[in-house]
Amino acid sequence: MAIKDTVKPTRSELLELKKKIKLSERGYKLLRMKRDTLIMEFFKVLNRARNIRTQLLSQYRHAEKKIALAMSTEGVIPVKSAAFALRDKPDIRLQSKNVMGVVVPLIESKGILKKVHERGLGIIGTSARIDEAARAYEELVENIIVATEVETTIRKLLDEIDRTRRRVNALEFKVIPELKEAAAMISFRLEELERENIFRLKRIKG
């Protein structure tokens, strides 16, 4: 049911509608600004995501080459032993930050990139090839964490952009036009009543 079908043709109703129109128009402007700012932020994050994806692919290929080289020169068992020797787990902390009212993740990681002696292998029990492979995968994992943060931010921004866009469209194409139509109808009806009263008074005086 349209707004015009539910309102009464009174001056108080007209004043109330005018207040609603002003409030809706103010909200529309603010939401449109929010939508545009979110879109700008989205494209900035998207550009970062593209760079990270390209870097991840390059790092993955590099790590695969390093592990293959380590296995071919040192053997599969020493490489697997080196992998199982690692005891310390990385410290990953999940926090959040606010981007134009959108809560997005902020992931902090420590202990992923390790020095040779921190991998639990000892100087004698390791080799340059295994160390290079370990380093390559540590760098890959560190960038995967960054990519996770960026990808999640993109999804959350897209969801908020879509929600804001729907609200902007609803105000622009439905709420505000219907309020203005209802206000115009009441104004017309009040003018008609005014003319009828004037005509009635003239007849009485005549």
How do the strands and helices of this protein lay out in sequence?
Layout: H1 11-74, H2 76-85, E1 91-99, E2 102-110, H3 128-205
Helix pairs in contact: 1-2, 1-3
Give a structural overview:
This protein has 206 residues and is mostly helical. The protein is 74% helix and 9% strand. The protein is built from three helices and two strands; from the N terminus they run ααββα. The protein has a two-stranded antiparallel ribbon with strand order 1-2.
**Order of strands in the sheet with the most strands?**
1-2
Order of helices and strands: HHEEH
Radius of gyration: 33 Å
Mean pLDDT: 86
> How would you classify the quaternary structure?
single chain
How would you describe the shape? rod-shaped
Low-confidence stretches: none
Helical run tally: 3
Largest sheet: 2 strands, antiparallel
Number of strands: 2
Kindly estimate the percentage of residues that lie in beta strands according to DSSP. Answer: 5-15%
Distance between the termini: 44 Å
Q: What structural class should be given to the helix and strand makeup?
A: mainly alpha
- What helical percentage do the residues reach? over 70%
Name the features.
about 210 residues; about 10% strand
In short:
74% of the residues lie in helices and 9% in strands. It has helices at residues 11-74, 76-85, 128-205, and strands at residues 91-99, 102-110. Helix 1 (11-74) packs across helix 2 (76-85) and helix 1 (11-74) packs antiparallel against helix 3 (128-205).
